[in-house]
Amino acid sequence: MTHGQGLWWLEITLTGKDAHTGSTPMNMRVNAGLGMARITERVHQIAMSHQPNAVGAVGQVKVFPNSRNVIPGKVVFTVDIRSPEQAKLDAMKAEVMRAAHAVAKELGLGCEIEDVGHFDPVTFDPGLVKIVRQSAEKLGYSHMDIVSGAGHDACWINRVAPTVMVMCPCVDGLSHNEAEEISPEWAAAGTDVLLHAVLEVAGVVS
Questions:
Q1: How far apart are CA 95 and CA 5, in angstroms?
Q2: Dihedral sign (CA 97, 102, 105, 109)
Q3: What is the pLDDT of residue 155?
Q4: Spatial distance between the Cα atoms of 29 and 84, rounded to a whole number of angstroms
Q5: 0.85 exceeded by the pTM?
Q6: d(CA 44, CA 56)
């Protein structure tokens, strides 16, 4: 693991007007749900335009009044954008904010955006990264440099002490899901690499 992504969490509140879905003419609607849908697509497009390694999505959504036959008059939702590069991360944030305000203006919606979470990208200790890589090679395991997409404790420890991470593969790359699966062989290989890296740093002959 060479880097950890930084992130911005934005909470966006769009305010329109509650109205009946059946009796309200299309040209008279002030649909906060439609605004959220358009912004959701823009978040995806913005992340795709900042490849490699940039990601973005809408996660939590609260719709008001949350009735099957009422056009949403208010929607509160969160945007999660991440990148291991500070410049990209900040650019993505600015683009999301511009897009949200532009969509709101086009649809006649009120728009408020609040920063609700942030941390800067992390570069793990190059010396420790090299030792982990050499340990994998010494043991005959395949390996690759990757960027951590999640906010691990190691990202915070890295602020006060040299840090590195060892990641093992999961079936189909599925993470943070009950269906996540790793084979005993993969887990053993990762543990083996970690052990030899620790012994190397400690100066213990292995």
A1: 18
A2: negative
A3: 80
A4: 40
A5: no
A6: 6
